[in-house]
Amino acid sequence: MPGTEVSRRKGAASSRRRPMSEPDLVALDPSVLQEEDEAALTTRGAAYLQEYVRTERRSTLLMKNLAVVVIEMRRRFTTEDGLPDMRGRSYPYRERIAEVYLRAGVPEDSEDRIRANLRYHIGNLLREELTPQELEDYGLLPAAPRDRKRAKDAERDALVAAARAELTAGEADKAVVAARSASAPSQDEGGSPGSQAEKQPLVRVTADYIQLGKAASNIVGKMDVSVIDDVMTDGQRAKLDGYLASMQETLRKLRRHTRKRTSGT
Length: 265
What we know:
Elements: H1 3-16, H2 38-54, H3 59-75, H4 91-104, H5 108-129, H6 132-137, H7 145-183, H8 200-221, H9 225-230, H10 234-259
Helix pairs in contact: 1-4, 2-3, 2-4, 3-5, 7-8
């Protein structure tokens, strides 16, 4: 076995025997890393990662600290264009980050999940540190992963609300038909109106309409303008604008009826 591989495995075993001390478990200030060399950054990163694997009591803080270390590592390497390797794609950087995972003793069945979690926190920090122009130069989206996650959550909630509203609308339509049939004058009754019990569907349908209005307001309210401005393409924005314009026209027609009883006319 090559000597370097033996030393790496010894380093990993030694690191596993020394749990991270409590004072290390604080939010990491990026400025303290500027004087550390690559070897020190590797050791620090491995310590954070090892502790993350060992316990998840402080997993979010540990992963954020590791993200700070990794971003500082990336600054030490350059791309073919001479820029800092902020996306972590250069071969020397990949060798260095592989050393971090090796020394931390990350289990194979956890590595993919840990890498995805680390990318999430790195992405958030990069949006805080880089200017909009730098993000564009690196081919990165302006929106941070946490903002994109919020947008997806809002989209999911909106879809659920829309499905519920559509179901409510269908039930309301059935109730309207039933209510009109119940309240229509009967020839056998000499044209007398329906009983109070027969008018109950109308009471339910008005409540359903209130819920529909509330659901529609909630759905539109969940749209994040930062997603429209920073994430959507021009084509997607135009398509959404078409839906909003159609919705606006429908709302305008409906409000003619909701306002006519209260406008004094």
